């Protein structure tokens, strides 16, 4: 039966960075009692909300729904706000990113890690990319899943077990499914050309991610590849299923969430043509995301809530650009298009 009081409102969404934001905003808004449907657009930075809000004015509705989204770093407004780059953030972001990059180059020189390899992504690189991914906006949707699921189980006094099952499910599934992707790669028998193309795609994905994290060029958000949004919505919906094995299933399902970092590692796993190598790459990547996600789930840490989040995301974006540029250079060196440019 159609409710004649239902109306559709369009709000501007402040704080959207990537395709994961679409899943997160839509899922959180549709959980609101008065909301029937929500449809977000990254290109327009907007959301269409259909529901019955009685006699509330649009301004009131925007403030009301903003309270739901604020924990995830979003707010709603009636008018589109002009995009303004906070260049002062780079005053701190540049030295932070520079220090991070310099540290790992030094460790590379000392032989402690193999951050950059002329032909392949090393396990060290996969772990570091996992660390970077865990504090990016792409992982906000995973953090939202963890906190929402935890809240459901906490009502019944079950706080620790769901967290452990979630992280176990995530680590095990990334290892096994990464192996499956690697094995599939062997079936395609990728030659040097195919490997170069996929390596080039990995570099482009990382470059787009880095540019989007800098939040300097809004148009770049349209370039970011992602899985179909309905997959992310189905995964996110699992948080409301209060079953003993739900945390385990949610952990497994995060493998399919729209995160560019995960997708770049999945593409690389495909190029390995090996179950074991693909499994280790994805497993180590998931292990890299574990420290921050564990802090988030056990202490309610929210990186995106911090006052310096602008600085933080810009620093992260610069580090991701570093990975993207090096992957791009290395893929060109590997096929002999350009000579080696660096000695590390």
Widest sheet, order of strands: 2-3-1-4
Provide the low-confidence segments as ranges.
115-119, 300-308
Number of distinct helices: 12
Write the H/E string, N to C: EHEEHEHHHHHHHHHH
Number of strands: 4
Approximate helicity band: 55-70%
Q: What does the average pLDDT come to? A: 76
Q: In percent terms, what proportion of residues is strand?
A: 5-15%
Radius of gyration: 21 Å
**Envelope shape:** globular
Give the termini distance in whole angstroms.
Answer: 66 Å
Q: What class, by secondary structure content?
A: alpha+beta
Whole-number count of domains: 2
The major beta sheet can be summarized as: 4 strands, antiparallel
Question: Topology of this structure?
Answer:
Layout: E1 7-14, H1 19-30, E2 35-41, E3 46-51, H2 58-69, E4 75-77, H3 90-109, H4 123-134, H5 140-154, H6 160-188, H7 192-214, H8 229-237, H9 246-253, H10 260-272, H11 275-299, H12 309-334
Antiparallel strand pairs: 1-3, 1-4, 2-3
Helix pairs in contact: 1-8, 3-12, 4-11, 6-9, 6-10, 6-11, 7-10, 7-12, 10-11
Compose a concise summary of this entry.
It is built from 12 helices and 4 strands. The protein is α+β, with helices and mostly antiparallel strands and 344 residues long.
């Amino acid at each position: 039966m159609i409710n004649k009081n239902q109306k559709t409102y369009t709000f501007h969404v402040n704080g959207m960075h990537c395709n994961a934001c679409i899943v997160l905003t839509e899922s959180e808004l549709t959980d609101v009692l008065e909301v029937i449907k929500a449809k977000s657009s990254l290109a327009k930075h907007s959301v269409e909300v259909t529901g019955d809000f009685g006699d509330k004015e649009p301004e009131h509705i925007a403030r009301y729904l903003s309270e739901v989204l604020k924990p995830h770093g979003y707010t709603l407004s009636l008018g589109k706000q002009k995009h303004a780059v906070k260049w002062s953030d780079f005053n701190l972001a540049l030295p932070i990113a520079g220090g991070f990059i310099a540290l790992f180059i030094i460790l590379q020189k000392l032989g402690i890690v193999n951050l950059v390899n002329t032909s392949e992504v090393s396990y060290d690189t996969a772990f570091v990319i996992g660390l970077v991914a865990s504090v990016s906006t792409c992982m906000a949707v995973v953090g939202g899943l963890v906190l929402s699921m935890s809240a459901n189980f906490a009502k019944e006094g079950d706080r620790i077990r769901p967290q452990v099952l979630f992280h176990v499910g995530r680590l095990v599934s990334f290892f096994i499914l990464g192996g499956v992707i690697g094995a599939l790669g062997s079936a395609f028998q990728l030659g040097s050309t195919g490997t170069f193309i996929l390596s080039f795609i990995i570099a482009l994905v990382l470059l787009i991610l880095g540019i989007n994290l800098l939040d300097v060029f809004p148009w770049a958000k349209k370039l970011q590849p992602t899985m179909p949004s309905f997959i992310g919505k189905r995964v996110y919906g699992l948080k409301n299923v209060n079953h003993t094995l739900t945390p385990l299933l949610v952990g497994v399902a995060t493998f399919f969430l729209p995160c560019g970092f995960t997708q770049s590692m999945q593409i690389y796993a495909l190029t390995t043509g090996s179950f074991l190598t693909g499994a280790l790459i994805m497993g180590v990547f998931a292990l890299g995301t574990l420290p921050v996600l564990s802090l988030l789930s056990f202490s309610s840490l929210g990186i995106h809530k911090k006052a310096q989040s602008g600085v933080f995301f810009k620093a992260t974006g610069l580090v991701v650009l570093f990975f993207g540029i090096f992957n791009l250079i290395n893929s060109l060196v590997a096929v002999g298009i350009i000579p080696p440019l660096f000695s590390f």
